[in-house]
Write the structure tokens for this entry.
Amino acid sequence: MYAFLRRWLPEGPATMLVGLWYALLIVLVLWSLVEPQAEFRYVKL
Amino acid sequence: MSVVSLSLFGWMVFAVAPYWALPDRLRAAWLSGVTFAFLVVHAPLSAAILLGFAAATHGFTRSDRVSGKTAFLLCAAIVLVLVLYKLRVSVRFTDALTTLAIPLGLSYYALRCVHYVIERYKGTLAPQSAQDIGSYLFFLPTLLAGPIHRYAPFHRDAARRRWDSRLFGEGLERMLYGYVKIAFLSNYVVSQGLSSLVLDLQASHPSASTYLSVIERGLNGYLQFSGYSDIAIGFGMLLGYRVMENFNWPFVKKNISEFWKSWHISLSSWCRDYVYMVVVALSRRPALAALASMLAIGLWHEISCRYLLWGLYNGLGIVAWQQFQRLKPMLPRIESPAAALALDAAAVLLTFHFVILGFVLVTEPTLGDVLTVYRSLFQGWP
């Protein structure tokens, strides 16, 4: 992601954007984990 | 065990934390030890089976040359163990979505052992030490649900392994994408959001509701499995290994053959190498080989009529595509770029629907329910 952003942006803004992106994804994962999870499982462990 | 669980995450952290602090010669042993401990704690039977497989694989392929008879008997024994457990599961099968009682990871490490034995027989691999085979088979990232990675690239990565902060960062990012796919996109957006839409439409527009529910299963299957593969690949990167890719945008492929080259790639390429090529070599019939490969893929998931039908359905799809390729030169050429684009879009839609309609065969508990879903899909549209 960082390498992708660096094609167009200088180092500072690219680092900030990528940090925000990861923070957003982590919040989404944690938020969806506290919501009731559907027990769909394709992967049979 | 769920893929998104604190327990599995804890094991990952436990495996990685001291890994890079250890001297290089101890890293493989540490990882194999953690994997073995993980299996002993969560699936002792699987630990015993894998230990037996690893010992047999090493013991019978130690000599410089592995005879055809030895390779055949060893592969047959491994496949027999797999088939026996799959049959036990099929007999006890009650619900498509319950956790099945097959030893953890058996479907995957059995195929890894068969791959290793066949490559030793073919002479493409030199005899390997017990530690090397052990580190290949007891590799935590891919142990539970693939990818079914190959020995040669794994061994190459092990030899080149060194701390690489870029690869480590890439691994963390990849794992994060995997968790987003499973926890947010699949378990939350698709399973909760799309499901409630399916329920809302059930009374007023039953066909549209069934159609959305079929799409939901296809999307869920992709997001769950590719999410798990992302986590496994990312976890491998944290340990300095580049594990093979398992998915490559399967739902935007223009034909069923391309789809199967981009869906569960490690399994389809395994079947290409060890089923398709063998049947083609023996029979000189690509159609028969495609059917045999797809039946093998179907039965690998589960030994049951529904998976046999699913394999046959996809196999016939590939055969139809192969026959169509022969007719293609006789069809008029499309010159206009717009028409070519529209045709490509239609091909993607057709392939997508062919695949998701096939998933109905394996997600419904009985054949009667499958027919009810198909009937509901094709009736009642305004």
Remarks:
- The radius of gyration of chain B is 22 Å.
- The longest helix of chain B spans residues 165-204.
- Chain B touches chain A through 32 residues (CB under 8 Å).
- Residues 181 and 227 of chain B are 5 Å apart (CA to CA).
